[in-house]
Design brief:
The chain is of the alpha/beta class. The protein has 15 helices and ten strands. The strands form two sheets. The protein has a six-stranded parallel β-sheet with strand order 3-2-1-4-5-6, sandwiched between helices. Strand 1, helix 6 and strand 2 form a beta-alpha-beta unit.
Length: 359
């Protein structure tokens, strides 16, 4: 039993090591080239200094070092004594090996297409730097994919974070390949400019960590976290998650709803997710200086002026006012949950956020 546990730990360690190497390779494919060039420059400097100590001039020392490393076969500008010959032998062994390593590293970059990938990644990083109010999706699993798909259908800007380069290969969204345990990864995804973060990682422990890390670096960001176990939900809330979603529980509730109210579920799905109907549900938040503040639904004439229908109002303290009557008052910073066409909802958003001084 202990042997099996040790084998399992060893396997996990090897997997983590391989994944970290893949991440390093994706993040910095020119690392080998840089190491090779630095080593080659060091060999040239050491060779030049060595030949100067043997009585060569500076230019002759550089020339002798270069022809020795490249093995081009030109005659030496000075006769070599026993000591300089030994130094030359050592320089050939070290220099040729270093030159071959550098050459192979350059070929690897060119053949593997790293140059093209680097250009694409640099462009993507610039695009991420220009993003404001975007959504960060942590974890490119089944849940993360569905979250990204839905956000993209609503034209939202998003950045995906995952540590597995193979998962991220070819995805149509901006991404950052890195370990979520590294705060630098979140900052590269533009955490300080993001509007929301979705923690959809594989384990509750990882989601808990990213929630704590993101909230500590950016207290105002909205965090929606995934929970596999019910016992983790309260911990994620205490850690700073604004919303906690249990996919298993939601899936069970949804299946039960299909049994009891299939038509209601179908309607909500079509309005919220399908897009085949021109009507959809949206929320409109009133500004603090909205001209509608203090008006009743009847006096505001929202239905007449915009065509959108207000189904519910959420007060700033979180209370819901469902099926509001015409005499219910609209308050500043209320959230109007409304249904209508895209044009009607857009008109409602504009009308609801007119400042008080606009007539």
């Amino acid at each position: 039993m202990n042997g099996d546990r040790q084998d399992g730990k060893l396997s996990d360690a090897v997997t983590d090591l391989m994944t970290n190497r893949q991440v390093d390779r994706v993040r910095n494919p020119f690392r080998g080239v840089r190491i090779g060039l630095i080593a080659l420059a060091l060999v040239v400097v050491v060779g030049t200094v060595g030949y100067i100590l043997f009585g060569f001039g500076l230019l002759d020392a550089v020339f002798q070092t270069v022809i020795t490393i490249t093995t081009v076969g030109f005659n030496s500008p000075h006769p070599l004594d026993g000591g300089s010959k030994v130094f030359t032998i050592i320089l050939i062994l070290v220099g040729v090996g270093t030159a071959l390593y550098t050459f192979s590293a350059v070929l690897e970059v060119l053949i593997d297409g790293h140059m093209r990938d680097l250009i694409r990644r640099r462009k993507m990083e610039r695009n991420i730097e220009l993003m404001h109010g975007h959504v960060i999706v942590c974890g490119w699993g089944r849940v993360g994919r569905e979250v990204a798909r839905f956000l993209a259908s609503g034209k939202a800007d998003l950045v995906v974070i995952d540590r597995d380069p193979e998962r991220l290969s070819g995805i149509p969204y901006a991404f950052v390949c890195g370990d979520i345990a590294d705060d630098e990864t979140l900052l590269r995804a533009g955490l300080n400019r993001a509007a929301a973060l979705v923690a959809a990682l594989d384990t509750d422990a990882d989601n808990l960590y990213v929630t704590v890390a993101a909230k500590s670096m950016c207290p105002d960001i909205q965090i929606i976290a995934r929970a596999r176990n019910e016992s983790s939900e309260s911990k994620l809330v205490r850690a700073g998650a604004d919303r906690v979603v249990n996919p298993q529980q939601l899936g069970g509730d949804r299946m039960a709803s299909f049994v009891t109210q299939p038509h209601v579920v179908d309607f909500v799905d079509v309005v919220m997710h399908d897009g085949s109907l021109k009507f959809r549900l949206e929320e409109v938040t009133l500004a603090a200086d909205s001209a509608l503040a203090g008006n009743t639904l009847r006096s505001a004439h929202l239905r007449d002026r915009t065509g959108a229908l207000v189904l519910a109002i959420r007060r700033p303290d979180g209370r819901f006012l469902t099926n509001p009557s015409p005499e219910d008052t609209i308050e500043a910073e209320d959230v109007l949950i409304s249904i209508g066409t895209g044009e009607q909802l857009e008109a409602l958003a504009v009308f609801a956020n007119r400042p008080m001084d606009v007539r």
